[in-house]
Design brief:
Blueprint: H1 2-8, H2 28-31, H3 37-41, H4 51-65, E1 72-78, E2 82-88, E3 91-95, H5 116-124, H6 130-139, H7 142-147, H8 153-158, H9 162-186, E4 191-195, H10 196-201, H11 203-212
Helix pairs in contact: 9-11
């Protein structure tokens, strides 16, 4: 793409914006895994994703609220892909996605964080190939896999099938649990921000998550 643009748009400046760059300022302990350190030196670390979204939100919070936005913030990017980011003064300190976009929260069709022993079991005992495992984790898991109905949150919320509610409840539980984890990483919580498709367009999910985070002082103003 860069080569093509260079040929078609000679002399035009090209700028690369990397989705992981926002998380590069995280402390080392937030990026390491419990693996031999030479693997970290080979690039097997937590990179985090949705960085362009988080960077924009940090900028907007500063533009709109100034110094009031400089505290401890957790942003919930909840869409077909989903992650959370904990910031202090607009700088990323921890996030739920890691080395890949499979990590963290359950998503539309992605599994989120699971016990690595499950992967060994599927490879060694169930004899799944690497391609079959990738398809399972990326395309047949998450909300779709848990419900057996759909990976679309609005479809699940509209359904009366108990399996749909099972998937919704798991999603809310995992988001609430990870908010608690990230709040611990930054020493508390001053601001909770929702964004992306589910975050913006599913008020019932926002309400349930805020209720789960009530112990952190999160509340809803019913008059707004």
């Amino acid at each position: 793409l860069v080569d093509l643009a260079s040929r078609l748009l000679r002399g035009t400046m090209q700028v690369g914006c990397f989705d992981t760059a926002f998380h590069a300022a995280q402390p080392e302990h937030a990026r390491l895994y419990g693996l031999p350190h030479e693997m970290a030196e080979q690039g097997i670390v937590s990179y985090g994703f949705h960085g362009l979204s988080y960077s924009h939100i940090a900028s907007e919070l500063n533009n709109r609220y100034g110094a009031a936005a400089g505290g401890r913030t957790i942003v919930a990017h909840l869409g077909s892909g989903a992650s959370l980011c904990a910031m202090k003064a607009g700088v990323s300190h921890a996030t739920t996605m890691g080395f890949s976009t499979l990590d963290g929260l359950i998503m539309s069709t992605r599994c989120g964080a699971i016990d690595p022993g499950i992967l060994l079991h599927l490879l060694q005992d169930r004899k799944l190939s690497s391609d079959e495992l990738a398809e399972l984790l990326y395309q047949r898991s998450g909300l779709l896999g848990v419900s057996g109905i759909s990976g679309n949150m609005q479809t699940l919320l509209a359904s009366k099938d108990p399996a749909a509610m099972r998937a919704v409840d798991l999603f809310v539980y995992r988001v609430g649990r990870e908010i608690g984890s990230l709040a611990a990483a930054i020493g508390g919580l001053d601001t909770l921000v929702f964004t992306a498709g589910i975050g913006e367009h599913a008020p019932a999910i926002r309400q349930s998550i805020c209720e789960a985070a009530g112990w952190l002082g999160v509340g809803l103003d019913e008059e707004l």
